[in-house]
Write a structure and sequence with these properties.
By secondary structure, this protein is α+β, with helices and mostly antiparallel strands. It is built from five helices and twelve strands. It has helices at about 5-20, 35-55, 70-105, 175, 225-230, and strands at about 110-120, 125-130, 145, 150-160, 165, 185, 195-205, 205-210, 240-245, 260-265, 275-280, 290-295. The chain has a six-stranded antiparallel β-barrel with strand order 1-2-5-4-3-12. Strands 6-7-8-11-10-9 form a six-stranded antiparallel barrel. Strand 4 (about 150-160) and strand 5 (about 165) form a beta hairpin. The chain starts with a helix and ends in a 28-residue tail after the last strand.
Length: about 325
């Protein structure tokens, strides 16, 4: 057996024999105390902490250089959570801006993010005040959305730093904008357009309107659920269908914005359907909106033939030459 292999067993045997000797016999070994203390002192504290942890303290050993008070720990944890929340909000904002641009990629539209600073009403009805105004390029009649694609309303007036917005769910919305009852198209799926819907009234945050068959530009009633199931060729309107804005009196940058989802379908007079639309976003509890400002002069586009009974602007009269 080599000396290296026999040294450890011999050392263990020597320690055992020393442990059996009486205390007076060990006085001569005190000369080794100081050198051993010098060698073992650096590791005593880490060994002690490790021993305490192994005995069930439940906390890993920590160096005093990295120790923090509970208040400092809570503060750092709050700052970390705050940074994570801000990063998530920025990612959502970028995503919403991208959705708004992808909706009308052929148009150059600047989207201004504006925080809501007040809900209230004045003599002209319920308004929403946001922190963006003429200084940012906001003008009256600008289109307002939330999360990039959900239609909120239009700007009634713009001050230097703020502006007042009228939500589409405000009952006085048509009166504030020359009695214009906007219209939309009911989407049969993500790509196929269905019949045209026109606003008739606003109640309890819901948009109620009539449905027209725009194929013939006449007051042709669309089928109800019972007639559609009997084999009618025209599409059936069901709750949950998406309704997008399609109105020639609105700027091109507003076309195909989401008005809401079909909530209820009821038969009306002359067999015409009455469809109630519920906006997907609660417009009375929004914290931030986006104001769509075209970089060029808005171009009005036509969404199809005029609806029966729809308000159309009168043609200007020609001046006779004297």
């Amino acid at each position: 057996m080599s000396p290296s292999r026999t040294s450890i067993p011999l050392a263990l045997i020597a320690i055992g024999l020393l442990a059996l000797l009486p205390r007076p016999a060990l006085r001569g070994l005190t000369v080794l105390h100081d050198p051993l203390t010098f060698l073992l002192a650096p590791i005593q504290e880490p060994v002690r902490k490790l021993t305490v942890w192994l005995q069930g303290s439940g906390k890993p050993p920590q160096s005093d250089a990295f120790a923090v008070t509970p208040d400092e720990w809570n503060k750092r944890l709050w700052e970390l959570n705050q940074a994570r929340q801000e990063a998530a909000e920025l990612r959502a904002l970028v995503k919403d801006l991208s959705r708004g641009v992808d909706l009308n990629p052929e148009l150059v539209v600047r989207q201004i993010a504006a925080p809501v600073i007040g809900f209230g009403s004045d003599l002209s009805g319920g308004l929403v005040t946001v922190r963006a105004g003429r200084r940012e390029g906001v003008e009256a009649n600008a289109v307002v959305v939330v999360r990039g694609v959900y239609l909120v309303g239009r700007v009634l007036r713009a001050d230097e730093r703020t502006c007042a917005i009228v939500p589409i769910t405000e009952p006085s919305f048509p009166k504030m904008f020359r009695n214009q009852k906007f219209s939309g198209v009911i989407m049969l799926d993500e790509q196929r357009r269905g019949p045209l819907w026109q606003l008739d009234s606003i109640s309890d945050g819901r948009l109620i309107g009539k449905v027209y068959d725009v194929d013939s530009a006449a007051e042709t009633p669309l089928p109800t659920a019972s007639t559609a199931s009997a084999g009618a060729e025209r599409p059936e309107i069901l709750p949950g269908m998406l309704v997008r804005l399609s109105d020639g009196m609105w700027p091109a940058s507003a076309q195909m914005l989401e008005i809401g989802r079909v909530e209820r379908v009821e038969p009306g007079s002359y067999g015409r359907l009455i469809v109630t639309i519920r906006p997907e976003q609660d417009l009375s509890h929004i914290g931030e909106v986006m104001i769509r400002v075209p970089e060029s002069t808005p171009v009005l586009i036509k969404s199809g033939p005029p609806l029966p009974g729809a308000d159309t602007p009168a043609a200007p009269k020609e001046k006779r030459k004297p």
